Amino acid sequence: MRDFSCPTCGQQLAFENSVCLGCGARLGFDLGTVSMVTIVDEPTVSLDPSTGSVPAAAYRLCANMHLARCNWIVRVDYSGNGVTLCPSCELTRTRPADDDVVALEAFAEAEAAKRRLLVELTELGLPVVGRAEDPETGLTFDLLSSRDEPVVTGHDSGVISLDLAEGDDVHREQLRVAMDEPYRTVLGHFRHEIGHYYQMVLIVDDDARQRFTELFGDPDQDYQQALDRHYSEGAPAGWEDTHVSSYATMHPAEDWAETFAHYLHMRDTLDTAAAFGFAPAGASLDRPQPGPAGFDRFLEQWLPLTWSLNMVNRSMGRPDLYPFVLPPPVLDKMRFVHEQIAARVMVS
Q: What's the predicted TM-score (pTM) here?
């Protein structure tokens, strides 16, 4: 995620800002232009967010401004009616009850991660189709906490469920250690589960399905049997040579989702690094990497970045920021993910 600046005074801004700390301007994020805009009282200001300012009579912050700390703008009509939830918040179908203070705090953290995810998907050119447009397989989110009821993080025909207990650092770290994972975050969960959604969206024609099967395995193999086998026997010996994580060995669908999530990690990290001058400008998400050589250029930008970031972390006495090694079979799978995204963008 690149940083932003105030259209009025040029003050550097973070993605989460709703007020400029330099000039006090009211701010909101516009997904259509992927930019911060000021919300001003002058009714004669253009309605086009690309100008940098929008009139308060026609735009306001999302109705979840306080509940989810959402700073995205929504369009309203001059009577004060119209859309009240932003494109991210309107995708959430289920959330904690208003009196569940602990879960609501975790809900706000999860929504912040989801907004970052949606910006990346938008910049990659991937379609985000909600339940209102497609009642059967449209994307929607159920965000609930297992502190009060059983919640299983997962995906089912466009419905992404997330256990908000993952927002608790201690709980998440305990699970990370128990599952022997080098990396576990709420944003990572979203990226993994959205990978399942995009398998459904992207792997649709015979050629894509055949190549998927060659790389990942048969996506129709029995999932419950694979799950039982994984948790009773663990990952097979030598999994590091063929898979991006031990969990990816469980089932071809999980291998795809783990690979897809890792690709999103890499693309967003490169985009941020490019914004701050740590990577070539061509590495940013608004610079597509099409063609057979696109993925090769992507790797050429990625590898020196991770080496330098790991060295910086070690200088601070911290573990490596990027504790992964990507063997050739994993890169082949990731190249396929890259190509499927690029092909979808070209069609749209």
A: 0.92
